[in-house]
Structure formats: C-alpha cells, structure tokens
Design a protein that fits this description.
The structure holds 2 protein chains of 2 kinds. By secondary structure, chain A is an alpha/beta fold. Chain A has helices at 41-48, 71-77, 92-102, 110-119, 136-150, 166-182, 194-200; strands spanning 5-14, 18-26, 31-34, 56-61, 64-65, 78-81, 154-158, 186-190, 203-208, 211-215. In chain A, helix 3 (92-102) runs parallel beside helix 5 (136-150) and helix 4 crosses helix 5 (136-150). Chain B has helices spanning 9-14, 17-28, 34-61, 64-85, 92-118, 126-157, 159-167, 172-175, 177-197, 205-212, 217-246. The chains are: A alpha/beta, B mainly alpha.
Chain lengths: 236, 259
C-alpha cells in the first residue's frame, strides 16, 4: 500500500514555468520539494491541487485524471497551504475551524483545537482572540494547524515554516509530519531548506528551472520508518 | 395643469443672471473655470430643450413602439455609462452580466410598478412610463456602478484570500462571500441613506415638479413614496442579480481563479 502512487504526472507542462516528463509521488511518505525560488515548486503544488490546470499532459490522483474529477471535492481531500498565511476575519478558533467548514467536515472539539495548536508550538494563543494582532510566525502556525485539523488524504505545504526561527521551524515541521503520518495523511512539502528536506522527507523532488529530478535522502523520517522508497519517477 | 405659471422667455433668460454672477466671481478670484461654466450651461440648455421636444413628440404620439424605443435607448445609455465609470478593465462576460442585470432588474420592477402600483391605462402611457423608467434605470445605474467597482476591487485586492479558501476546498461562492456581501452593501447604501433624509433634508425632484405643476402635496407624496420604494426594489434587484452572477466570471469551470 505504501508504494501506491498518490500522484502521477505524465508529460505535464504549465506555460513556460514547469515541464515534467514523468513523475510519481508515493502515498504515505513525507515528500519534500526543493529548489531555488522561481523554479516552479509552487506551480507543481497548485497543479496537484488543481488550482491551475496543466497546459498539456495529465496529472493523476490515485490513478484518476484530475481533470475528470470534481475540483472542489478533490481540494477537500488534497488540501494546500499557501506560503503566505491567509487569515479570515474573526477569532483564532474561527480560523482553525474554517477549513473543516469549507470541506463540509464537522467542527472539531475545543480540546482538539488546543491540542493541534500546541503541536505547532502555538498553544499559548487564546482561541477566542482576534487574528488581527498575530505576528507573521503565529499566523503561519495557525494556518498550518488549520490544515492539520482537516485530516485530508494529502497535505500540500508550501514553505510552511518560512516565517519561523530555525529552532521553532524544526520543532513545528517534525510535529506536523509526525501528526500527519500517524493519521495516514500524505505530506508533500515545499521547503527552501535542504536540511529540513533531508531530515524529514523520505523522498526529495528537486525542481530547478521548471524541470524535476528526485533523490533519496540519506536518513529516514521522524516516525522511525527506515524503509527506502523505490525509485519513484524519472525526472528530466 | 391648474395653477402653473408659464415662464415667459424674458423671465427665463433672467435666470441666466446667476451664471453671469458666477462667472464674475471666478474671474475676480482668478479661478480658471469660466470655460467649464459656459460649456456646462450651454450643454444643460441644449440637452434639456432637445429632451423637451423629444418628450413632447413621444407624449403626443402615445405610440407603444416609440415609447419602448426610448426605454431601450435609456437602458443602453445607462449600461455603457456603467462600463465607462468603472476604472478597472471589465471582461466581456462581466459586461454581459451587467447588461443582463440592468435590463432584467429594471424591467421587472418597472412592469410591477406600472401594472400593480400605478395601474395606468394604456400600460405604456409614455407620460408615466418614461419618467418612471428614467428614475428606476438611473438609480440602478448608480447602484450597479458601485457594485461593479467593489466587486472588481475586492476580487483583485483579496485574491490571496479567495485562492487560500479554494485551496481548502471551498466553493467559489464561499470563497468570495465577503466580497459579494460587501459589493451588495455598498451598492444599496446610497438608496437607503437617501430615504432617511427624504422630506426633511430635501424635497425630491419628482415631488417638487408635481407640486410646482399644481398637484396637491399629499398626492405628490403618494407618488414619491411609491417611486422611492420602486427605486429601492429596482436597485436591490439589479444589484443582487449582478453580484450573484458577476462573481462567477472571475472563476473558470474548474473553480480556479482566472489569471
């Protein structure tokens, strides 16, 4: 089951930004997407979430071509977190629940909200406080907690820790991935840090100048699974 | 009508003395506005004289087709006026929605007004239909212009937020809900505000006109109340049709934001 492809890209191009001949992304293994900024990493995530459609080629999600699926239902299973955290008017609690609301899931109990906030090192934030006064790093953690609470099939995280200091960053990423793996949520994370990618990902996909290549990290991910994924795709 | 004093030409010309005084003031203060004042006065005079003759013919003829032609002309002018007023470029599909909302919203309200509220015979009596349509279309034009501006601005400035909501599995409607509500609110607010001050702060044009032409104030007020409610109905209907359909033009059939 762990070798089942979560996503498969076949001859996918997006404008002049990204061109992927073939790529397979496994399920239930933390995947990191690395590469210089402007190289097409965010575009790759948006293609998986069907927030954009490829100019040519096909993206498959669990064997089904994305363009044949209902895009809204797909996004309720394949949830994306944008790089710049977006807060909706209201309280911290509203911002945590809104993902579940959008995806027609029942509201999470207060204890669960508190638990996930603590997981992302934001346990001190009052649930009934306004999000207006939060710092950039706090907003990023609330946004991350929001998508973790949704417990979708897959999480696409675009630089989920860019506004955090190094120490907090490591803690938050580790806790988030542990949480996701524990709940069988597949994580695909864009990161600027190769160090983070090596420490926490099973599979690393490198995107440079709109082309992909994947490599295997030297160590295993934090839940201790030491399995090596098979070669998951041939980059260009 | 009874009791109306026909203005003699000489007396009417005397009213232009106000313009002469104004030009004298700006000249003395060296404010470079003489040309604008002159042009505005001339345009107002010529346009109203032309309109007077056109309405004279239309009222005289009492022709269904001529009256409808006037309404179509009025509507077309209003729609293009909205396109011109909004500073942002508008997509073809949004322009279509604007035209649809204006034509649909004002026609439904106008028909209701003519057939149910006033109950005039024949229904296309131009003396009623043309001025009432003018007021409904004019006010809806102002409302929809505000709504379009707010919707386009909102979709631009809140693009990140809309996109973030889509990423979480929201529908385009949920993702743009705040923007839609905001556009609707700012479009109908001027109409609501004008009702609050009505009769105390100012006497509306239609009522003033009726009173001047000898209609009893109570009758004039009945008409004014009816027309204000009609205006509110037309503005709400055009704006609600516009925002409910208009927001969709910002999304593709795959629920993606158009670039």
């Amino acid at each position: 089951m762990s070798d089942e492809a979560l996503f498969r890209l076949a001859h996918v191009t997006y404008k002049s930004v990204l061109s992927v001949a073939a790529l397979s992304i496994p399920a239930h293994r933390p995947v990191a997407v690395v590469g210089r900024s402007g190289g097409g990493k965010t575009t790759l995530l948006k293609l998986l979430n069907n927030l954009i459609s490829p100019t040519s080629g096909t993206v498959y999600y669990r064997g089904n071509p994305l363009e044949k699926m209902n895009p809204i239902e797909l996004r309720r299973e394949v949830v994306m977190l944008p790089q710049t955290p977006v807060m909706f008017d209201g309280t911290v609690e509203h911002n945590l629940q809104i993902g579940r609301l959008f995806s027609l899931r029942a509201a999470a109990p207060q204890e669960e909200l508190q638990r996930v906030l603590e997981l992302v090192s934001a346990g001190a934030l009052p649930l009934d406080g306004s999000v207006e006064t939060l710092s950039g790093g706090e907003k990023q953690r609330v946004a991350l907690a929001r998508v973790l609470l949704m417990e979708p099939d897959a999480l696409l995280l675009d630089e989920p820790s860019s506004a955090l200091d190094q120490e907090t960053e490591q803690q938050v990423i580790e806790a988030a991935i542990r949480h996701a793996v524990h709940r069988s949520v597949s994580v695909i994370m864009v990161t600027h840090s190769r160090d983070i990618a090596r420490r926490f990902a099973d599979v690393i996909i490198e995107v440079e100048h709109g082309r992909t290549a994947d490599e295997q990290p030297p160590n295993s991910h934090p839940n201790g699974a030491a399995s090596r994924p098979p070669q998951t795709g041939a980059g260009e | 009508m009874n009791g109306i004093i026909e203005l003699e030409l000489g007396r009417l010309i005397a009213a232009y003395l106000f313009v002469v005084v104004l030009i004298g003031i700006v000249r003395a203060r060296r404010i470079p506005r003489e040309r604008e004042i002159t042009v505005a006065t001339l345009r107002m005079t010529v346009q109203l004289i032309l309109m007077g003759y056109v309405l004279g013919v239309v009222f005289e003829q009492r022709s269904l087709w001529l009256t409808l032609a006037i309404l179509v002309l009025m509507q077309t002018f209003a729609i293009f006026n909205i396109y011109g007023r909004v500073k942002e470029p508008l997509s073809t599909s949004l322009k279509r929605i604007i035209a649809l909302a204006m034509a649909g919203g004002t026609t439904v309200t106008l028909l209701f007004f003519i057939f149910v509220v006033i109950h005039v015979a024949p229904w296309y009596e131009p003396r009623y239909l043309v001025p009432i349509a003018g007021m409904l279309v004019g006010n809806s034009m102002t409302g929809v212009s505000l709504g379009v501006t707010r919707l386009v601005d909102g979709m631009k400035s809140r693009r990140d937020r809309v996109e973030a909501a889509l990423m979480l599995g929201s529908t385009p409607r949920q993702a743009s809900r705040e923007i839609i509500d905001n556009a609707f609110d700012s479009a109908i607010l001027p109409t609501i505000n004008s009702m609050v001050g009505m009769g105390i702060v100012f006497l509306p044009g239609m009522m003033t006109g009726q009173i001047l032409s000898g209609v009893s104030p109570t009758t004039a007020i009945q008409y004014q109340i009816a027309i204000m409610l009609g205006i509110m109905g037309a503005v709400s209907l055009t704006v609600v049709v516009f925002v409910q359909l208009g927001f969709r033009t910002f999304f593709t059939h795959r629920a993606q934001l158009r670039s």
